[in-house]
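Researcher: Last one for today. Full complex below.
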Amino acid sequence: MTKTDDLIETLAAQARPVRRLPSPWVRLCLWLLAALAVVGALALWHGARPGLGTLLAQPRFALGVAASALTAVLAALAAFLASLPDRARGWALLPLPAAALWVTTIGYSCLAQWVSPDGSSPPGETLRCASTLLASSIPLSLLTLWMLRHTARLWRRGPVLLGGLAVAAVTATALSLLHPLDASAEILFWNLGVAALVLAVDGVVGPRLVQRLEQA
Amino acid sequence: MTDTQAAQDERRTRDAALSALMRQAQAGDRVAYRQVLIGVTPYLRRAAGRFFARPADIDDAVQDILMTLHTVRHTYDPDRPFRPWLAGIARYRLVDRLRGVSRVAAREVAITLEHETFASPASNTDTDAWDAHTVRQAVAALPAGQRTAIELVKLQEMSLKEAASASGMSVTALKVATHRGIQSLRRLLGGHPLL
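Model: Here's the assembly. Have a good evening.
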């Protein structure tokens, strides 16, 4: 009997019933519920930014928030689709148009609202923004990596980065809704900077964490 | 019906059978699972054969894919075709293995006879050590190429690549010169047991 035959007998003997992975659409819904819960909890704790209703009536602001929210949804869906071995890796391109729109609205906001010398945010706002960033991105990142743990021996990096993009987009949406980010530098940092930071951390730590979660 | 159509129909039938077996395997049916694993092995061997030449490497790759299939069997949706799911797993594992082989090969240096140390315990103690002056005299008496090879590879313990860079000799020439140098030293030092 060859080593492969031995392995087949061993694997067959170890076969136990498994709980099938829910479809990517179901997993997306679960992930969105978790994201809404996180943002909702932050909104309850922090309160909405002043004048949010007025701001949402402004097309530029509404488009920016919609673009970041849409990026989050599409990036999460792409992560769950691309993580399956029988789905095309081309699904990874799904969030790109929404992400491009998001970046465009950020750029336009920066041009329209150049930073003033005396700044526009109340004191202590940076610390509050940082706490929202951490409170939103850490639990969502951990949840996303846990939901992608089956990719440990498949395509790890792509789905993990897509998951990171989804988390970054949710965080940026929360920051826009909850904090007065009006100066260009703030918009740039708390949107693109957050996205880059979450992607960098998830890109480095994520694949290893996914492997550990898969072995656990 | 043409041959191609017949082959396609046969493939579809086989795929449907494997899909049904895999559904049962997910429910814990060990007999069905064993049939799946046996049924996919020839396909996996052919796939691995496109990436690796040595039978041992092909076997290792096939076993890697089977273990991965076992680990991620919960990701298969029985309402979808089985073959693309299997092919996806095989593709990711084979590419991963190929990357790993390239990484290791880039860092490895092949061990040759000249790199082996002596098994005799006496060779690892000082009690039977040569007189250093005698050894230096013997090395100095070697032809230039053999002397350079012995000094760099054996006395200064450089790697073959480092010694080749320092001496301007090729790695092959260094190996030959080292081997001949040791034989010459054996003659010069009077057939010492450690040579």
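The mean pLDDT of chain B is 83. Chain B touches chain A through 37 residues (CB under 8 Å).
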